């Protein structure tokens, strides 16, 4: 049964499983996000999607990515209160990630050009991470490896490999680098190596070469992972996708 709600004074219909963010996006109503991706579950970490909702005469701020729609809900995406809190949040992110182009762009859209808070080292790789959790969720929910996670609490919170050691269960697929909104994780393929850099360090992974054309087409760990998951013989992956078509 369709649910009726209003966003910025306009009435919309939604399904019971929808969130305020999914309805707003479908309607073309802009709500800023840093930790949202349709590929993974929502987490509400960045707080950039805060909107003001009114329910039974009471108003409060909620994260649009997590808040479920309900009949008669009134949503204001750009209320004075919501914008004020968003600007404070982006100031904190600017202080943490002064060199991040994504954070700077979002700050500019909110009219914020500088932060009142202490600025981190602009050249530090670790300070590009906004702790959005996208990398950990894609690794666990999509890849199925759960090779990285958010550890510690408070100001010590960070994304880390198991025991701060070399890759562990990482299969070097690169999903974390592709989904990272700020470039805190990077990936470079160089010859027979794939080099992945996390805030805590850099790890080199061996690439598998195609027996026919010699192309380094995938990390060895990823090929081994796919063989285990599919139940196929490792020899099925001796050739790159192009050569397997021949």
UniProtKB/TrEMBL annotation:
Return the PROSITE patterns for the record. 2FE2S_FER_2, 4FE4S_FER_1, 4FE4S_FER_2
Which protein is depicted?
Answer: 2Fe-2S iron-sulfur cluster-binding protein
Ranges of residues in domain 2Fe-2S ferredoxin-type:
1-81
The answer to whether UniProt assigns keyword 4Fe-4S to this entry is yes
Q: Which GO terms describe its molecular function?
A: 4 iron, 4 sulfur cluster binding; metal ion binding
- Highest rank taxon of the organism: Bacteria
Q: Which Pfam families match?
A: Fer2_4, Fer4_7
Q: Which UniProt keywords apply?
A: 4Fe-4S, Iron, Iron-sulfur, Metal-binding, Repeat
Origin organism lineage: Bacteria, Bacillati, Chloroflexota, Dehalococcoidia, Dehalococcoidales
Domain 4Fe-4S ferredoxin-type residue range list: 160-190
């Amino acid at each position: 049964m369709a649910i009726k709600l209003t966003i910025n004074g306009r009435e919309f219909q939604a399904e019971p499983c929808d969130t305020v963010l999914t309805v707003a996006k479908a309607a073309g109503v802009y709500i800023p996000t840093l930790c949202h991706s349709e590929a993974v579950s929502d987490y509400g970490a960045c707080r950039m999607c805060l909107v003001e909702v009114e329910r039974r005469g009471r108003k409060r701020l909620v994260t649009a990515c997590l808040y479920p729609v309900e009949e008669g809900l009134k949503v204001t995406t750009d209320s004075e209160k919501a914008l004020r809190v968003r600007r404070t949040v982006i100031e904190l992110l600017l202080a943490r990630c002064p060199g991040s182009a994504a954070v700077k762009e979002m700050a500019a859209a909110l009219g914020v050009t500088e932060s009142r808070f202490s600025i981190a080292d602009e050249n530090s790789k670790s300070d590009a991470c906004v702790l959005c959790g996208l990398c950990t969720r894609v690794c666990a929910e999509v890849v199925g490896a759960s090779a990285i996670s958010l550890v510690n609490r408070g100001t010590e919170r960070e994304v880390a490999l198991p025991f701060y050691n070399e890759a562990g269960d990482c299969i070097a697929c690169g999903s974390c680098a592709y989904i990272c909104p700020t470039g805190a994780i990077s990936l470079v393929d160089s010859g027979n190596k794939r080099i992945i850099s996390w805030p805590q360090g850099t790890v080199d992974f061996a690439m598998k070469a195609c027996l026919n054309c010699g192309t380094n087409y995938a990390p060895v760990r990823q090929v081994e992972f796919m063989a285990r998951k599919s139940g196929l013989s490792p020899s099925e992956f001796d050739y790159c996708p192009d050569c397997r078509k021949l």
